[in-house]
Amino acid sequence: MTRMRMKRHIPERMEKCHERWFDDPAANKGKWREVCGIPEDAQLFLEVGCGKGKFCTETALANPDVLYVAIERDKSVILAAIEKAHNQDIPNLFFINCDVNIIEDLFEKDEVDRMYINFCDPWDRRNKPKRRLTYREFLNKYKILLKEGGQIRFKTDNDELFDFSLGEFGKCGFEMSELTRDLHNSEYDKDNVRTEFEQKFADAGVPIKRVVATLAKK
Ligand SMILES: C[S@@+](CC[C@H](N)C(=O)[O-])C[C@H]1O[C@@H](n2cnc3c(N)ncnc32)[C@H](O)[C@@H]1O
Fold this sequence. Notes:
Blueprint: H1 3-8, H2 10-16, H3 32-35, E1 44-48, H4 54-62, E2 67-71, H5 75-87, E3 93-96, E4 112-118, H6 136-145, E5 146-156, H7 159-171, E6 175-180, H8 196-203, E7 209-214
Parallel strand pairs: 1-2, 1-4, 2-3, 4-5
Antiparallel strand pairs: 5-7, 6-7
Bound molecules: S-adenosylmethionine (SAM).
S-adenosylmethionine binds at residues 49-51, 71-74, 77, 99-101, 118-121, 133, 195-198.
């Protein structure tokens, strides 16, 4: 199937999996657990820039008591993730097709227990750092919806982006732990779920950088 033909079929394919995504996700603000049929005391984990969904589908399957929500702005990319969740019938995983920019319209203050940022686009440090999903403007938005004690788990292949992000986490008051510049050869690899991009970089011999940033105090 050509890329053009695949693109033409996006609306029909999205429609087939409609139970996994929302026409108006902002209407779920403050009531994600209730709308998704998950107990009120369940944890909510949010992945931003989920790509084709390898990480969120595997993680949601392994943790059926946690509600997973994944955001991705590219429709043809999120479609692959949504179809994975639909075909595997994963009841605790839902998707939002939007830009992370509007995240504060989608989640209530303190609604989220943990976030994942995996291999976000590195952009150019000199002219596009504001687009990085670990830029302070994004981190300040995440801080509103994250609970006190909530974490952002961040992985990247890119040294420059990693150093930049450590600086941004520090400036925004996050405490950092479990830092490694070679995740796959570290003690933290035992529970690690590889993303699509992570697998490609690992195959090319690039060491993966990873840190846990905790919002210790709000
Ligand atoms: C390099 S890919 C990584 C995909 C996946 N996380 C992985 O590790 O395999 C980055 C993804 O983030 C998405 N993305 C980048 N900026 C975004 C934004 N502001 N809002 C939503 N998605 C975004 C891109 O469309 C792309 O699919």
